[in-house]
Design goal:
With about 60 residues, the chain is mainly α. The protein has one domain. It is built from four helices and no strands. The chain is globular.
């Protein structure tokens, strides 16, 4: 489930709201899912930082 969510997040240009809509959940539910695996959250935040986006808090 996490891998699919990360694929959608990347395909959505790191837009969490758009990703959540595509996954039929809320933005906060999606962030909580990613945050359950600290390494996934850290990796996603690295990519977000490289693209000038703020980090996600989990």
């Amino acid at each position: 489930m996490l891998a699919e969510a990360l694929d959608v997040i990347h395909a959505s240009g790191l837009d969490m709201k758009r990703s959540a809509v595509r996954l039929c959940c809320t933005r906060s539910q999606l962030i909580k899912l990613v945050a359950k695996e600290p390494r996934a959250l850290a990796a996603l935040n690295e990519v977000r930082a490289a693209r000038g986006r703020p980090p996600l808090l989990g």
